[in-house]
Amino acid sequence: MITLTGTTIYLRALEPEDLEFVYAIENDESIWEVSNTQTPYSRFLIRQYLENAQQDIYEAKQLRLAICRKGSFEAIGLIDLFDFDPKNQRAGVGIVIKRSDDRNRGIGKEALQLLIDYAFSQLQLHQLYANISQENVASIKLFTTFGFQCIGVKKDWVRTGRQFTDEGIYQLIHQS
After folding, report:
1. pTM to 2 decimals?
2. Phi, psi dihedral angles at 142 (to 5 degrees)
3. Which structural domain, as residue segments, surrounds residue 51?
4. 170 in a domain, yes or no?
5. What string of DSSP letters covers 133-154?
6. CATH number at residue 115
């Protein structure tokens, strides 16, 4: 089991007990825009996903970890590596903190630092990237804090209701 520990939080592998938490995240329409979700997920599908969550990142091409406060097993957020490409040594990064009152408290910052360190030191990745709506100021601030740079903007990329917004691609290249 992967466990990455920081000062106030730790990241751990998903467990069957996380079913209701993942179900709540995946079906929260208020975060569908940032998670690129368009339809609800059933408990059945999430249960199947959790049963396969033990797959190695090299097999699944993704890694989803629960963000937990130290001293607690309860997940407060999720952080992902997706589109894992070992040949080209890169992966995408996504993060979500479920409750709004847990946001802007340094939890995401600590989780992202742990994931970046893991990706570069353990997985030997050369680069990470994130797709971020240009209206998501908090995420842009979080990722740029770690040196992610906006390398391009996809115009009118994300539709929310009847409006289209731009999405930036942010990239962090590991300097070895």
Report:
1. 0.89
2. -60, -50
3. 3-125
4. no
5. ETT-HHHHHHHHHTT-EEEEEE
6. 3.40.630.30
